[in-house]
Design goal:
The protein has 119 residues and is mostly helical. It has one domain. The chain has five helices and no strands. The longest helix has 34 residues.
């Protein structure tokens, strides 16, 4: 019923058709794939290639931070390990080692007749 095209006079239409946008629109109407689809696909492919180079550079920088160990360094790390005591590690995690060295967890005494609730 009503077109979405705006009205252009004869002079305006001629000026529009001579402009870059008008000529490009005319070419797209003739062969839309060649003038619109192909450039779009080429720009996507080019963007993918360029972005893959940036991503590769990012991961190469990360890889530089990680260094390979020779066998002697690895063996020295294994031999120089400290002995682990589970009780000390538990107290360190709880933050109780320095403050309460003699602290031991134990069960709360139950009232007479109260169940132990052991499953």
């Amino acid at each position: 019923m009503f077109d979405s095209k705006t009205f252009m006079g004869k002079r305006e239409r001629e000026a529009y058709e001579k402009s870059f946008v008008g000529r490009y629109q005319k070419l797209v109407k003739k062969n839309s794939f060649l003038y619109f689809g192909l450039p779009m696909m080429l720009s996507i492919a080019l963007g993918s290639v360029l972005l893959s180079n940036f991503t590769a550079l990012r991961y190469e920088r990360r890889d530089e931070k990680v260094k390979e160990m020779n066998e002697e360094d690895a063996l020295s790390m294994i031999n120089n390990r400290r002995k682990v005591d589970i009780k000390d590690e538990y107290y360190k995690l709880q933050g109780l080692l320095e403050e309460h060295e003699d602290w031991e967890p134990k069960r709360v005494e139950r009232l007479p007749g109260e169940s132990e609730n052991k499953w």
